[in-house]
Amino acid sequence: MKRSAGADFQFLSDPDGHILDLFAVRHTDGMGDTDIAQSASFLLDAEGRIAWKRVAENYRVRPKPPEILAAADALR
After folding, report:
1. Whole-number pLDDT of residue 12
2. pTM value?
3. Do residues 69 and 58 lie in contact, with contact meaning Cβ atoms separated by under 8 Å?
4. Residue 5 contacts by C-beta under 8 Å, 6 or more apart in sequence?
């Protein structure tokens, strides 16, 4: 896990797709015969629990930065 320079939070990635089912975001009608992740955003609390999530029905619909920042502020 890498920490971004200047960021006070961590970015997480699942390049092998092991967490898709855990977070219930596997999209089986993805690219050809390959499953892909459904567009989803999560904020975790200090204990690693999901404190906020947004799962989109359409990959083109994603939360805007102000929505994510407001959710993060609400968790403080």
Report:
1. 77
2. 0.63
3. no
4. none
